[in-house]
């Protein structure tokens, strides 16, 4: 007797209504809406972040879970993961970074166009984790500036999502002038980046 194979036999309605991102604050009237340019740019940027996963070890498995259907980072406009730095704006550093790997990580960061953001995922990327040894970088912020740290060994996908939402928050609120400010130049100079 053939096995009955049926998919999606129970038709489901939408359990929750589709949500649309909230627009920026502004003034509206008959046929017009006025707001700040930086708010519109921030809204577009934060909902279309393209991540570059720089995965070296076990935390990479959690990243795979994050991208799979259950957690589904695509819900936040970030399904377009790439390994081409010039097309990405969020560097996700995932796993143990050996000191030898430091210059390579920095090179990848430099190849990304501004504006770019960095998320350190897991204890190893954030602080060296359990590997307090001569060969492991004790945190990627020794070679590149980091915007958000996600703790855990490994962090659960929920924690990564939380860190990602914090990145979105930073991206959405960032002033268009920040990257041209003296403070930002000083930050880059402290990493010997011109
Ligand atoms: S933080 Fe833990 S799980 Fe992640 S790369 Fe380091 S040892 Fe592996």
Characterize the structure shown.
- With 194 residues, this protein is α/β, with parallel strands linked by helices.
- It has one domain (51-190): Rossmann fold (3-Layer(aba) Sandwich), CATH 3.40.50.12280.
- The chain has six helices and six strands.
- The protein has helices at 37-46, 59-67, 102-111, 122-127, 157-173, 182-190, and strands at 26-29, 32-35, 51-55, 90-94, 117-121, 148-150.
- A hairpin with a 2-residue loop joins strand 1 (26-29) and strand 2.
- Helix 1 (37-46) runs antiparallel to helix 5.
- The longest helix has 17 residues, at 157-173.
- The model has no long low-confidence stretch (mean pLDDT 91).
- It binds iron/sulfur cluster.
- Residues 57-59, 95-96, 122-124, 129-130, 153-154 line the site of iron/sulfur cluster.
- The site of iron/sulfur cluster has 12 residues, from helix 4.
């Amino acid at each position: 007797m053939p096995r009955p194979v049926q998919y999606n036999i129970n038709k489901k309605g939408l359990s929750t209504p589709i949500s649309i991102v909230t627009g920026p604050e502004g003034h509206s009237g008959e046929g017009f809406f006025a707001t700040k340019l930086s708010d519109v740019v921030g809204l577009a940027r934060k909902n279309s972040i393209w991540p570059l996963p720089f995965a070296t070890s076990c935390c990479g498995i959690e990243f795979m879970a994050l991208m799979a259907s259950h957690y589904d980072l695509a819900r936040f406009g970030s399904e377009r993961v790439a390994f081409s730095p010039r097309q990405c704006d969020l560097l996700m550093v995932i796993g143990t970074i050996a000191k030898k790997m430091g210059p390579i990580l920095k090179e990848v960061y430099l190849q990304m166009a501004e504006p770019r953001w960095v998320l350190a995922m897991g204890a190893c990327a954030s602080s060296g984790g359990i590997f307090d040894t001569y060969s492991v970088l004790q945190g990627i912020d020794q070679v590149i500036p980091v915007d958000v740290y996600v703790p855990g060994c490994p962090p659960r996908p929920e924690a990564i999502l939380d860190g990602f939402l914090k990145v979105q928050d930073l991206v959405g609120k960032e002033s268009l002038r920040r990257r041209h400010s003296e403070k930002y130049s000083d930050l880059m100079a402290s990493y010997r980046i011109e």
